[in-house]
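User: I'll paste a sequence; please echo it back and then give the predicted structure.

Assistant: Echoing your sequence first, then the prediction.
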Amino acid sequence: MIAFFRDRDPAGRSEPEGMESTSPSTNDVDVLSSSTLAVASLATPAPSLQEETPHEEVEHQYLWRCFPDYVWSQRVRDTPSWVWGFGYDVEDSSGGRRWVCRRCIQNKNPKPRSFAEKGIQNANAHLFKGHGIRAPPDKTKSAAEKKAEKLKVKDQRSIAEVMKLDTRLPREQDIANSLVKGFDRKHFQRLLLEWIIEENHAFSVCEQGRLRQIFEYLNPLVKITDANITRTTIRRKVLSAYEMHKDKVVAALKQSCGLIHVSFDGWKSGNRHSLYGIACFFRDENSQPRKLALGVPELRTRHFGHNIAAEILDVLDAYGIQDKIGYFTLDNAESNDKAMEVIGGELGFVGSRRRGRCFGHTLNLSAKALLFGHNVEAFEEQLSGEAALSEAEHTLWRRKGPVGKLHNLVVDVRRSDQLTYLLRSIQRSEFDLSSDPRIRARQPVDLIIDNDTRWLSQLYMIRRAIILRPFIEQLVLKHRQQWEQDNRSKRTGNLRKSAREPRICLEENQLTVNDWVVLEHLAKLLGFYEDAVKTLEGDGQQRKRKGGWVGSYGNVWEVIQGFEFLLEVLEDYKQLASEIPDAEHFRINVNLGWEKLNKYYSRLDETPIYYTALALHPAFRWGYFENEWKDNTEWVMKAKQMVREVWESDYRHLQVVRSPVDDEPVAKRQRKYYNPFQAYCERTRPVLGYGLVKEEATLSDDINEDTNELELWQSSWEDGDNDVRDPISYWHERKRRYPRLSRMALDFLTIQPMSADLSCVGPAMSDAISNLGGGGLSTPYLANLATSLNYTAGCLLTLFGGPLINKFGIKWSCIIAAVGMPLSGSAYYVCAKYRVNWYLIFAKILTGFTYGFLYVAESTAMLSYPLANDRGFYLGVWSAMRNSGSVIGGAINLSNNHSDSKAGGVAWSTYLVFIAFATLSIIEVMAYGKLLDRTRWSQTKRAWISFACWLIPQAACFIWIGIEYAKLGRRKLENALDYETNTRRCAEAYLPYLIMQSTSYVCQLSLYWILGTFSTNAGSSARSGGLLRAFETAGQTVSYAINSHSGSDARIPFYVHAAILCLTVPCMVFLIRLVPEAPAATDIDAEPVIEGVLDNKQVT
């Protein structure tokens, strides 16, 4: 797990001068040595090949990869600034000299900082703020360093000053000395670190101002000694502790006296990192079961079995335990089959024989079949996961029978404050009417909403609904009465025709008496599932439980019993379901749940895990199979054969060392059972002793090596074997008597039946890596060129898009467009990682043609689908969806470039401003769309208003930008105009751009709305929309083409755009004058309707 962070550690690498940097707020900031000053007196020379060490060669390769157009500086002259000792001196083809931060290169920063020779004072500030490197005493300090020193001097007070002690008085002097001696700075930091780790807090919690104030209030020495730590310090200390203690973990695993079992499972973190948690389970030197999290590697490739196996094998190799690997507990994902095949091939065993299946995952599949029937996966995919249900989702749930109808009811109640408070008031009224003081003291409770299709959440929802059933029925009745009262005409006394009856009041959504009967049976049936999963969910370690009894949960020998117990319960419910009237869903789903459970029960013999664990439990032995499967002798023979094969092949001839055994008595079984499944396990214990030999009378502690320990033990018994509750301790006591069989028993009895322990790794890891980001192209010019070619291809396609859409239809046009999307994404990835530029150009040209189909298809749908008075709203939704990409893109750039302020990357505050404007644009276009639908104005008047809404601010912004360019001329900035570094200049330069960006969506929405006023036919809309998109893509082509050359004059795009705006004004005036006063009754040129799109006439 820590290795995942170590590869991304931006700290902990030393400078050539041997210094280690920390945060500027600490006392350990770098101080320059005299040798450094001597080096800094001259520019850093280009190192010769003979002088380069392997480490330096790697650094130089990374330097040139980040700065491909630069070489070592050819001019060596005096450079008095001390910062040159911490940077590389490079120059471009024009002779422009730059300082590149050596620490950034050593840390492999994806955006290493660099500054022009004339702006070297910025490098001074960067070294202090970015790496905590201070200037030498006799050299110029940056403004940030001076400010930090002033604050430190201002806050630096002694304990005597803070506590107002007069140290001239002996007594108060002793108090001051006692306070100083009583505070251990390192111990405080260690306690703080342990608290953050144990409570799973974010590392940044230690930097919270309020928390630091509490520390300083409790002991002023926290501030005086600068004992507070930063998130970077915590991360460094955690990595240091990991490296320090890793060898101890490796040693403990190697000293394990048996096999090491493994579980792994994958999940995706909130910021899209695909992680695999890996845990191991082993026995320590005292044969007690233990567990460890070995790692959380990231899977950067596709989730194929061989890719998963490679990550798992790397982690196992890092701990050196390949030769001790035992069995695996995994879920039922198909990729795990291939992963186990690869792992087994590498480690020398048959993967399928070593693969156990997570019992909890199997129960989940059976329970979902019981609840939802066929095609559960397809049903889940059709749900959006939103809190409020759409009509389509409401129908999907209703088709799932009583559970689906209850789900709809709960969602409607929970999303309505009115219904929620009404339900509470009904309960409160009922409680107050009771004569029982305990009932009157009750508090109303809410319905529990289920979590998509997770079966335990459905169980809790059903249980709460059954408790609230009388109140729910009153709720529906009162809500209907209130709705009728609100929607009854005062004149006629009848319900208004426009009134829409609430969904929970509709007859088809009502829970009938039979539905409630089914829900009650489901609650009881799923309760048995809950008992089984909770009993088998654990780590197999003996602990004191509630009620005072000592025992373990998560015992692998109870898996077979779990299957038998639930299959027996389902058999009973098959009969019961046939007697319930109108319970078709319930009858079918009970059978489906049984089939799913039986499918995996029949696959238990793919591995010897479960038969061996149960057969080597002293209370069950062969007797369990012979009693429970007496009608299936083939099953009994199969189970015995598998156990004997493992014994003969892996353990009978095993070399063992006899060791002394503790005399601790074996724990006996509990006398009280807490759920029906535990009672079933106790009931199926066979009665031992009949036909067996009592062991004490015939056996000694020493058994000949040729003795078959398995058969000997199976044919003998001891007093109390039938009551053994802890078989691990039982076999630990018998290691001397049965040295090989005890090893086999302990190996199998410590296998985990479920992989639930991995679920605790996910949330912590998701929080821990939430600030990691990715890289991209280092300059925008290649991307701009590729995008320009993309729009060129799109322009060519959209010119003929109308006829093509009319031919293929919208559905197939969207499918064609979707084919190109993965190609475009892969092109940027390949270009950024492998520098394959031609692939990016090729992919963008090809996807330009496929995107052309999408451009015309979406414009056709948006022009022809909405009704005339709703067109503005739907166009606003469409524009908002497109604008959401700007918000996401800005957020990604924020994560990538938040530490940059050079040209090509700006600081985090600038991106926050951009994201805020993009978010406001979404709200803006939604409101603007509603404005266009206002019927109080004619269409012509609305067209003029829309024209003014975007023309006036855009014209003002062009004037503003012209003034700014007049100020700057042809000068290029070494630093980006950044909100954090230069707030006023940033606002002056970027504000008009942000205004134009937001109003451009208003402009686009207006154009489509105006086009929609001329035609309601899909065929003509396809042609007019295609021509509009052709001109739009042509403009994008010109824009990106101009900006694809690094040496282009920045004023040229401005002149081009200004000229286009001037040409647009008369064209728009001419177009608006043609807009009809009312919605078009006929089409300009009617054509047949496109496949999959209804025109307005058909809708009405």
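Residues 605-671+684-755 form one domain. The first strand starts at residue 71 and ends at 72.
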